[in-house]
Amino acid sequence: GRVTGVHGEILEPSGAARGEASSRVAVGSFEASGAAIVVTTGGIGGNHTTVRQQWPDGRAPRTMLSGVPASVDGEFLAAAARAGGRLINGDRMWHYPEGIRNHSPVWPQHGIRILPGPSSLWLDASGQMLPAPLFPGFDSLGALRHILGTGHEHSWFVLNRTIARKEFALSGSEQNPDLTGKDLRLLASRLGPGNDSPLQRFLDRGVDFLQADTPAGLAAAMNSLTGLPLVDPAGLDRLIRSRDRQFDSGLGKDPQLAAIRAARRFTTDKVMRVAPPHRMLDPRHGPLLAVRLSVLTRKSLGGLHTDLQSRVLDGAGQPVPGLFAAGEAAGFGGGGIHGYRALEGTFLGGCLFSGRSAGRAAASAV
Ligand SMILES: Cc1cc2nc3c(=O)[nH]c(=O)nc-3n(C[C@H](O)[C@H](O)[C@H](O)COP(=O)(O)OP(=O)(O)OC[C@H]3O[C@@H](n4cnc5c(N)ncnc54)[C@H](O)[C@@H]3O)c2cc1C
Question: Going from the N-terminus, what domains does the chain have, and what CATH number goes with each?
Answer without folding.
Answer: 10-92+301-365 (3.50.50.60), 111-292 (3.90.700.10)
